[in-house]
Write a structure and sequence with these properties.
Length: 98
């Protein structure tokens, strides 16, 4: 795994396989002393939190080794270069409407 610089420390995104057991998932979260922060409604994708001092690589490996996990990744931070796309992003144009 290469260097990870633009991710939110202490957070990860986990996608579970269709046949997952909620008990198994809870056990995985307890293993890393984490919590579920959020999920995408109607999916098996969860945002989890854990100690920001923990190694993201170790946390990812803990989840990858589980038979119920389809994918796991850091909660990446993405940035948009406004200058390049500003004219085409109508949502950034706020003219004081309510």
């Amino acid at each position: 795994m290469g260097a990870l610089t633009d991710y939110i420390a202490g957070q990860g995104v986990v996608g579970l396989k269709p046949n997952y057991s909620s008990n198994e998932f809870e056990t995985l979260i307890e293993k890393i002393q984490g919590t579920k922060l959020d999920s995408i409604p109607g999916s098996r994708v969860y945002l989890i939190s854990f100690d920001p001092e923990s190694s993201i690589v170790e946390v990812i490996n803990d989840f990858k080794n589980s038979s119920i996990v389809e994918f796991v990744e850091p909660n990446m931070a993405y940035y948009l270069a406004q200058e390049q796309y500003q004219d085409s992003l109508w949502g950034f144009h706020n003219y004081g409407q309510s």
